[in-house]
Structure formats: C-alpha cells, structure tokens
Write a structure and sequence with these properties.
This protein is α/β, with parallel strands linked by helices. It folds into two domains: 5-141 and 277-326, Medium-chain alcohol dehydrogenases, catalytic domain (Quinone Oxidoreductase, Chain A, domain 1, Alpha-Beta Complex), CATH 3.90.180; 143-270, NAD(P)-binding Rossmann-like Domain (Rossmann fold, 3-Layer(aba) Sandwich). Helices cover 27% and strands 27% of the residues. The protein has eleven helices and 15 strands. It has helices at 46-52, 61-68, 134-138, 143-153, 170-182, 195-200, 214-217, 233-236, 256-264, 279-290, 307-315, and strands at residues 5-10, 21-26, 34-44, 81-89, 101-105, 116-120, 125-127, 161-165, 185-190, 205-208, 221-226, 240-248, 268-270, 298-303, 322-326. The longest helix has 13 residues, at 170-182. The structure holds NADP nicotinamide-adenine-dinucleotide phosphate. NADP nicotinamide-adenine-dinucleotide phosphate binds at residues 45-47, 50, 142-143, 146, 166, 168-172, 190-191, 193-194, 209, 227-230, 249-250, 272, 275, 317-320. Residues 45-47, 50, 142-143, 146, 166, 168-172, 190-191, 193-194, 209, 227-230, 249-250, 272, 275, 317-320 line the site of NADP nicotinamide-adenine-dinucleotide phosphate.
Length: 328
C-alpha cells in the first residue's frame, strides 16, 4: 500500500525562522489508544521560537540537545498546541469519536504545524464548545494553562493584590482575566501601547515599565507574577507583603538572593517549572471561554505557508496575546 502524505512545516535544524519550510511528510495513523486529529489551527508560541532557535542558557544547551535532538529537534514538526476535528479513532478509544471538535496540548512531542496529528486519548485533549472558534481554542493550551498553574501555585485569593509584569503577552493576558475571576485586585505592567488592552481585560491599575518613575509607582502585593521582562528580584521582593509570593514563569532559580529570601523569610519564590498538561484543566479553561468568562486575545493570523513571518513576529517579543496559524 502506498504511504499517504500530508503537508507540514518541518524544522530540520536549529536556527533562524528561515530554517522552517513546508514539506510533504508521511501522514500518521492512530494506534489502538490514539485519535487522529485533522488540525484546523495552531499557534506560534514563544516556546516554538525558543525550540527552533535553541534559545536556552549556554550552560544547559548540551543537556537540551540531548533531550530535544543534537542538531535540530528530533520531533521536527513544531507546534505546541492545536485545535481540530477528530478524523479517526483507534480500536480501544472510548472517549472520542469521529467528528468531535477538540483542542490539545502537544508539548510532549509537538506536531501542531501539520495537517494531521495523532495523540493518545488520555492526553491533554478537551472538547471544544460550539460557541468557541478553532482559532480561540488553539490559543488556550499553553498560555491559559500556564497562567492557571501559577495562580494555583501561589493560591491567589479573593481580595489579594497581584502585580502582573508582562501583562500583554499570552500568559499575561490570561493571568489578568483569571486573577479577576478569582476576585483579586490586578495591577498590570506593560508598555503604554498596551494600556487599553490590559484594562479591557479587567486590570484595575496599570503601570508602564518604560516610565522613569516605575519602581516608585509600585505598591505592596501579595503576589508578583513576572512573565517577561526584567523586573529585578531585588526590587520585586521589596514590594511583597511579608508572606508574599514572587513568581517568574520564564527564568530558572538563579540568584543566591532568591534562595536566601525563600529560606530566611516567609516570602516565597517560584521560578520557571513544568506544569502538568491535563485534559481536566484544558476542559475547565475552554468551558470558561464558552461561557464568556475568558477571552483569548488573538494578535494576528497566519497561514501555514507564512510560518517564517509568524516566527519572526513572535521573536520580536511584541505580540499581544497569541499568534494563530490556520492550518486547514
Ligand atoms: N513555565 C512555563 O510553563 C511557560 C509556559 C508558557 C510560556 N512560558 C514563558 O513565558 C514567557 C512569556 O510568554 P508569553 O507568550 O506570555 O510572552 P510573549 O507573548 O512573547 O510576550 C510579548 C509581550 O511582552 C511584552 N514585553 C516585551 N518586552 C517586555 C519587557 N521588557 N517588560 C514587560 N513586557 C514586555 C510585549 O508588550 P509591550 O510591547 O507592551 O512591551 C508583548 O506584548 C516566555 O518566556 C515563555 O517562554 C513559560
């Protein structure tokens, strides 16, 4: 029997956005416990950009090459989240059936930048409510799940004050909305350009990180969540309550000051960590979108053939919310 092919974007080696190209590759077929999803939309996340460019600290590059692949990603079709339609199910699958509209996190072995993707039925896959578009659904698994993970991690409570630094990116735009849902008082930090965006998502207060009086404009917070940018820890910790939590989703625990602070005070420091991909969390988040309680911010849309431009844009670190790629 001849092997069926599908169109995908492949990343044969680490490098600039130009290493990405459209290619015809074998179409996967589901094992007995898997479903085959016809992808409708995926995204270019900051994670895709970092993997493509092997953009990790020098000290851990050899280890990351071992894990991901030496000269290029072993799983060379990137795309860490997707939405689509179930086209086929394996013989043991009971949860899904052909025609279901779903969204999935594909952080484990990527694969969103292709017309088809096979995933185990027990993976992080959720049903898309009819009122949610495929574009919106594709933009949930990474940013929204990360924001949810960190807000749970600090046990954010109604009435508490949270500072969200880097509030206009994917994680930030979801964090504002989830923190407001919990009933917290949100101060959002971005450039002036994004003031109206972060306020429209519910932020109670706004601070411009480019303002010369930025540090002096800060209050005291129960939680500081840094998603991007350079809020120095030494400044952040001065603006925490005595048992406040400082969290940074993209930096590892790197200074003695952080370790010292968490050992010698009641302040807690939570740095970049993996959050478990769970179908339950995805379903919770997508249902919130369906109920109108959470709004994915879509900055722009590209077609699969425009993936190089999409990567260049995301790499600029100017995207607002999420960048969606229409696959079908
Ligand atoms: N730990 C995890 O599980 C996990 C999961 C997902 C993501 N992440 C990490 O989280 C980080 C954030 O990802 P993201 O997708 O939310 O971000 P992003 O979308 O790439 O961030 C873009 C936004 O950041 C703002 N920005 C740029 N420079 C800034 C600065 N110096 N200070 C404050 N804001 C700045 C820009 O707004 P302005 O134009 O207003 O500056 C832009 O709107 C990434 O490093 C990603 O790798 C971690």
């Amino acid at each position: 029997m001849t092997q069926q092919l599908m169109t995908a974007v492949v990343c044969p080696k680490y490098g600039s956005p130009e290493v990405l190209s459209l290619s015809e590759v074998p179409k996967p077929s589901p094992k007995s416990n898997e479903i085959l999803i016809k992808t409708v939309a995926t995204t270019v996340s900051h994670g895709d950009v970092r993997i493509r460019g092997l953009d990790v600290p020098k000290s851990i590059k050899p280890m990351i090459r071992l894990v991901l692949g030496f000269n290029g990603p072993r799983n060379n079709i990137l795309g860490l989240e997707l939405s689509g339609i179930v086209e086929e199910v394996g013989s043991d699958v009971t949860k899904f059936q052909k025609g279901d509209h779903v969204l999935a996190a594909t952080l484990q072995n990527f694969g969103g930048y292709a017309h088809y993707k096979c995933l185990p039925e027990k993976g992080a896959i959720a049903f898309k409510p009819p009122s949610v578009t495929f574009e919106q659904a594709a933009a949930i698994p990474i940013g929204a799940r990360t924001a949810l993970h960190y807000l749970r991690r600090c046990n954010l409570q109604e009435g508490q004050k949270i500072l969200i630094y880097g509030a206009s990116g994917s994680v930030g735009t979801y964090a504002i909305q989830l923190a407001k849902y919990i009933g917290a008082h949100v101060t959002a930090v971005s450039s002036k350009t994004n003031e109206s965006l972060v306020k429209s998502l519910g932020a109670d207060e706004f601070r411009d990180y480019q303002d010369s009086g930025f540090n002096e404009s800060l209050d005291v917070y129960d939680v500081i969540l840094v998603t991007i940018g350079n809020l120095q820890f030494s400044i952040g910790k001065e603006h925490l309550t005595s048992s406040g939590v400082y969290m940074n989703v993209s930096e590892p625990m790197k200074s003695l000051e952080m370790i010292w602070t968490s050992f010698t005070t009641e302040k807690k420091v939570v740095m970049a960590e993996n959050s478990e991909e769970s179908a339950e969390d995805l379903q919770f988040l997508i249902n919130m979108v369906g109920d109108g309680k959470l709004k994915p911010v879509i900055d722009s849309r590209y077609r699969l053939g425009e993936i190089v431009e999409a990567h260049r844009y995301v790499e600029s670190r100017r995207k607002k919310g999420n960048v969606v790629v229409l696959v079908d």
